[in-house]
Amino acid sequence: MAKILIIEDESAIRRVLTKIISEENETYDVKEAVDGLEGIEKIMNDDYDLILCDIKMPKMDGVEVLEKIKKIKPEIPVVMISGHGDLDTAVNTMRLGAFDYISKPPDLNRLLNTVRNALDRKELVVENKLLKKKVSKKYEMIGNSKAINHIKEIIEKVAATDARVLITGPNGTGKELVAHWLHEKSNRTKAPMVEVNCAAIPSELIESELFGHVKGSFTGANKDRAGKFEAANGGTIFLDEIGDMSLSAQAKVLRALQESRISRVGSDKDIKVDVRIVAATNKDLKKEIAEGRFREDLYHRLAVILIKVPSLNDRRDDIPLLIHFFASKIAEEQGTAVKSFSNKAIKLLQEYDWTGNIRELRNVIERLIILGESKVSENDIKLFASK
Q1: Is residue 82 a contact partner of residue 89, using CB atoms and an 8 Å limit?
Q2: How many CB atoms lie under 10 A from the CB of residue 376?
Q3: Which pLDDT belongs to residue 85?
Q4: In a shared domain, residues 38 and 117
Q5: Do the beta carbons of residue 239 and residue 198 sit within 8 Å?
Q6: Contact assessment for residue 181 and residue 227, using Cβ atoms and an 8 Å cutoff
Q7: What are the residue ranges of helices labelled H in 214-318?
Q8: 27 burial via Cβ count (<10 Å: 0-12, 13-18, 19+)
Q9: Domain endpoint, select from 135, 154, 186
Q10: CA 10 – CA 104 distance, rounded (Å)
Q11: Theoretical Cys-Cys bridge with 7: which of 33, 271, 291, 301, CB 3.0 to 4.6 Å?
C-alpha cells in the first residue's frame, strides 16, 4: 500500500486530488494536510511514499516545505502543485530536488502519470538501499571485542573523509575487510574500488599494472593500456601488501599522492586522477625503512590514519560469534543444514593457537561442518581441528 500525503490549503483542490488518486488505485492510502506546518508534522510522525505539495500557502510556503522534507526524509519524492503564476517558482523547486510539478487545475492523465512515476522512483530507491545493505553484509565485521569496536569507531570517523589509511596486521586477520568497509561507508561508494595485490605482481610489471603503459613501451606492450589508478578514478584504490612494492614503483605512487597525477609507462603525458588510497601490509614498514626497502616519505604520506588489525589470538572473545557466523555462511553456500557447536567444542576452539588467524578459523569450521556430526562436539575438534 502506497501512502500519499497532499499538502494543499484550498479545500476544493485538496478534495479533487484525493478523489482522483484514490479512485485510480484503491490500495493508495491518501492523507491530507491543510498547510505546510501540518504537513511537516505529519511527515515527522509517519512514513509516506509520495508528497504532493502546493507552492502558495499560508504559514509556510511550498518551497520551504520542500527544503525541510529534503533535510528530514530526502528519499520521499515531492511533486509540487503550482498556479499559473507560480511556474518560475515551480521550475526552481526542481533544482531544489522536487520530483516534478503539476499545474492547477490538474490534468487527469498528467497527474496520474506523475503519481505512478514518482511511486516507481521511490520503490527503486528502496530497492537500491536494500541492495546496498546486502552488499555491505558481504564485508560485515564480526566481533564485539574492544579491539574490533575500536576499529569500527575509527572507520565511522574517517570513512567519509579522503584521508589516506594504512592498515597493518598479520596475514589472515581481515585487512581487506577493513578496506572494503572504509570504501562502502565513504562518499566514493558509487565509484569503483580497485584492489591491487602488490605481492602477486612481478616487480618489473607493477608500474605498468598501477599506471598503465603505451604501445611499444616494452616487449609485449602491443597496445595502450590504462592502469589501476585510472580505473579507480573517483573511487578508492586498495594497495594490498604495499611493503612488497619496488622502490621505483613507490616513487611513482608518491608522485601520484603529491600531485594527483600519473603517467603511463613509456609516456611523458600527465593524467589527472582523483583516487583515495588505502594501503595494507603485514610487514613492519619502519623496519623496512631502516633497511632501505621502503621510502620513509611514502610511509608518512600513507599513514595519515593507522589501523592495526589484531591477530585472532588477541581477540578470542570474538571466536564464538565468528564460529556461528561461518557455520551459517558455509551451510548456506553448500545448501546444508546449519550445524551447532557444543559449548566444550567452542571452548576448545577458543584455546586453539590460531597462527593463520581468521582465514585458518574459517577453514577449520568448514572442515568440521563437512566431516563432523550434526552437532560438532569436543571429539570432532580433537579429530579434525588438530594441527
Answers
A1: yes
A2: 24
A3: 64
A4: yes
A5: yes
A6: no
A7: 228-231, 247-259, 285-290, 296-302
A8: exposed
A9: 135
A10: 11
A11: 33
Q: At a CB cut-off of 8 Å and minimum separation 6, what does 40 contact?
A: 60, 65, 68, 69
What is the extent of the structural domain holding 263?
A: 141-309
Q: Quote the CA–CA distance of 147 and 143 in Å, as a whole number.
A: 9
Structurally, how many domains does the chain consist of?
Answer: 3
CATH of residue 361: 1.10.8.60
What are 384's three cell numbers?
Answer: 579434525
Exposure of 351 by Cβ count < 10 A (0-12 exposed, 13-18 middle, 19+ buried)? Answer: exposed
pLDDT digits (tens, 9 = 90+) for 172-231: 999 999 999 999 889 898 899 999 999 888 888 888 999 999 988 888 888 888 899 999
Pairing state of beta strands 193-197 and 78-82?
Answer: unpaired
Cis status of the peptide bond prior to 310, with omega within 30 of 0:
no
* 336-378 residue pLDDT tens: 888 889 999 999 999 999 999 999 999 999 988 888 777 888 8
Residue 331 and residue 340 in contact, taking contact as beta carbons nearer than 8 Å: no
Place of cell 585472532: 312
Q: What percent of the chain has pLDDT over 70?
A: 95
Residues 6+ apart with CB under 8 A from 383: 371
Name the grid cell of 306. 593507522
